């Protein structure tokens, strides 16, 4: 039996936004700039000697701060701009206020491009923030009992991600080929007659004492100061590249040599060790 850490508060504000970009919740821009990309300066990314990087608060910020220090030793200057939402970083990038950003998965980026027309392109893959099934009551999915209540996110794709983790763990069966579009209504086999409820994933940390388990994107676990390794009873396959996060540039800068140089600073054993030690499985290096 695990002992729940007392005194947690409901996660709101910036952390409540994080699941969207890490899990491909559809983006909605406050204003669409059809000419933003064409108006961005078509110049080398480091013509001014600095690479301006937009990151979301949390893992992306922490990792880039670590890289920033190492790169500075070689005179490669990185300036970080930290955001608490997932609309502004892409708008700022498209309009030339940033050189690159590191905030999102491939499916999320595709949604943004389709909705806004921004001319953005992936530069390289960096990290994965996996979906996990977390429990205060149990240590493994094999301990789940008849009629237990399982909470899963009510956001697009996140519900399906959580259900796929449970299917892979042998808890339920879903229709073949449905993938992340699956909902609780699609469950074909449920041998334990588990009761599934859906809700705001930002509230699941506070609700864990009241359910047998919950599907939670691991960034929420980090925000609460908890250990994904200790609390997860099932975890999304970290080698599944569907949900890998990306460093993104404007399309016109896709071949800029600064991107290859940055990637060489990012994809090192030292950075991987920092990720492993800092996030304890809640964030995984994708190289």
Written description of the protein model:
The protein is α/β, with parallel strands linked by helices and 287 residues long. It has 11 helices and 11 strands. The chain has helices at 13-23, 36-39, 59-72, 88-94, 106-116, 158-168, 204-207, 218-223, 228-231, 257-266, 269-279; strands spanning 50-56, 77-83, 100-105, 120-128, 131-134, 149-153, 195-199, 213-217, 232-235, 244-250, 284-285. The strands form 2 sheets. Strands 2-1-3-10-4-11 form a 6-stranded mixed sheet, with helices on both faces. The chain has a 5-stranded mixed sheet with strand order 7-6-8-5-9. Strand 6 (149-153), helix 6 (158-168) and strand 7 (195-199) form a beta-alpha-beta unit. Helix 3 (59-72) packs antiparallel against helix 11. It is elongated, with a radius of gyration of 20 Å. It starts with 12 loop residues before the first helix and ends with a strand.
Average pLDDT, to the nearest integer?
86
Biggest sheet statistics: 6 strands, mixed
- Unreliable parts: 1-20, 24-42
Oligomer: single chain
What percentage of the residues does DSSP assign to strands (E)?
A: 15-25%
Number of helices: 11
Radius of gyration: 20 Å
Strand line-up in the sheet with most strands: 2-1-3-10-4-11
Helix content: 25-40%
How would you spell out the order of helices and strands?
Answer: HHEHEHEHEEEHEHEHHEEHHE
Shape: elongated
CA(first)-CA(last) distance:
35 Å
Count the E strands. Answer: 11
- Class inferred from helices and paired strands: alpha/beta
